[in-house]
Design a protein that fits this description.
Layout: H1 9-15, H2 20-25, H3 34-37, H4 41-48, H5 52-76
Amino acid sequence: MVVTRDTTIGEVLAEDMGAARFFFEIGMHCVGCPSSSGESIAEACVVHGTNEDELVSKLNEYFQRSEERRVGKECRSR
């Protein structure tokens, strides 16, 4: 998954619930509420007064590492 400022919180969490920790770290404790699931990362960062570029970067790093671990497991199991 590649996260952008327009990616919704719901899309991120649908891909991997482990990513919720990045929202919690910046004070977004409402990630489970129905309205937040349709909110873009940019919108959420404005509401919470946080830097969207930093959050997007952290999420993309997280998903990249997750993909690398998945591919590594597949290679070892062959």
